Amino acid sequence: MSRQVFTAKDHTFTICAYGESEYIEECIQSVTSQSLQTNVILCTSTPSEFLEGLAKKYDIPYFVNDERKFNSDIATDWNFAISCAETRLVTIAHQDDLYKRDFAKKVVEHFNGTKRPLIAYTDYAELRNGVEVSDIKNLNIKRIMLFPLRPRFMWASRFMRRRMLSFGSAICCPSVTYVPENLTNQLFIPGYKGGIDWQAWERFSKLKGEFVFVNDILMVHRIHDDSETTALINGNTRTQEDFEMFCKFWPKPIARIIEHFYKNSEESNNL
Hints:
By secondary structure, the protein is α/β, with parallel strands linked by helices. The chain has helices at residues 24-32, 49-57, 74-84, 103-111, 137-146, 158-165, 196-204, 228-234, 237-246, 252-266, and strands at residues 11-17, 39-44, 62-64, 89-94, 98-99, 117-128, 131-133, 177-178, 210-223.
């Protein structure tokens, strides 16, 4: 199989917008001011003059998902966002998050030379009360989990990536760039809330191909009280979903023990 070659024309940031986030314009600015200029589009299932105005202001193609009114699910929004892109590489940019200037440049560089890439993902920091932080317990644990996947020769190891996923979801969803042509027809399956990304990685991990790890902090995930992740952690939905995911890798008694410790680490998502 020949080595892959990608350029700026092969990548799209598809911003998945919902409602009228006070942070979305910062997200737009971060993806439109990349050192490697790639494509940017804006997708939503909640159209408004606010979002349409931002799309016009930054000259970004604007797509509205009419199917969401019949199937209200995050998976529907993300699948739609992927489908709107016309490039081989697609990053779903979450509206509250920020992408560092070299995100697209380094991601495309790391895809080059691969044989059958599935996804690429990067290290990340968090934005808490306006302060960017990276040296905290939760993130350091995830870096330890991802450590075995740093070497390029490990990217194609199904065994290693499944072992990594068996202890939790260390891959930051907003940092992920997808290669839809090498993935399943339906990237995200409706039903999950907080674990929608983890269940996708679990399915992708069984496929032949490479999980490309860019070991640089290239995006910043915003933590705030109104975020979907924070809301789910404060409730019981995330706990049940995490247990179901651990059961995909472990017998139920072991899964319950791992889930207990995983829940405690995830609570650092609270402000």
